Amino acid sequence: MKYETLHAVISELEEFEKHKSDSQISLDSFRRWLNERFYQQESPLNLMEKVEVDSPLGLNYEIVKQLMLLNRYNKIIIKKGMEKYPELVNEDFTYLYRLLDYESLTKIQLIEKNAHEKQSGLEVIKRLIKYGLVTEFPDPNDGRSKRIMVTEKGKELFKETTQEVNLISNIITARLSIEEKEMLFKIVKKMNVLQHNIYLKYREDDISMIENFISGSNHKD
């Protein structure tokens, strides 16, 4: 019989008893303590300390994992911050703010600037039009296409949400120094420029084409 597991349990129990009084010690409280202990070990807060550059997946994987987690957290914060504005749920928020940077865009241009699938993007635009935040009109240069622009109502809503957007931005970038923010901005922008290029040119191709493009880009660097 192997006793490694038993020894591990005893070791954890001894650690548990150091932190609890006799009246707090029970099988159920030990179980909850273990769950919390292992959750903390696997918590995203500790992921930075667990990076193993020499692992089979390596540093690139760890970077992607952090970015994916950050994206999820950002969506949660944005949803909480924009609770008072149900017309700006999910991607509707980013579409309106993106369109504000331009006098007008075609629907496809706006969808591409948000790196979205066409059908999903059209649904977002349809909702913005329904709420009167965006209006559409024929493209004078292309009778088959329609352009969209932010309405006065959309601009007013933008002004109303400025405080919430600033709060969201402050929370997401909290505890970063000015130098860290500037460095992060440069790095993320560089990554986005490349990924946007891939999205525009290779979104219909398989990943081997993208790999070839990346390899060529690396050689140029």
UniProtKB/TrEMBL annotation:
MF GO annotations: DNA binding; DNA-binding transcription factor activity
PROSITE patterns registered for this protein in UniProt: HTH_MARR_2
Keyword terms, alphabetized: DNA-binding, Transcription, Transcription regulation
Any Pfam family: HTH_27
InterPro entries noted in UniProt: HTH_MarR-typ (IPR000835), WH-like_DNA-bd_sf (IPR036388), WH_DNA-bd_sf (IPR036390)
Domain HTH marR-type: 60-193
Transcription regulation keyword on record: yes
UniProt key word Ligase: no
Domain of life: Bacteria
Xref: PANTHER family: TRANSCRIPTIONAL REGULATOR, MARR (PTHR42756), TRANSCRIPTIONAL REPRESSOR OF EMRAB OPERON (PTHR42756:SF1)
Protein name: Winged helix DNA-binding protein
Annotated source species: Profundicola chukchiensis
Species classification: Bacteria, Pseudomonadati, Bacteroidota, Flavobacteriia, Flavobacteriales
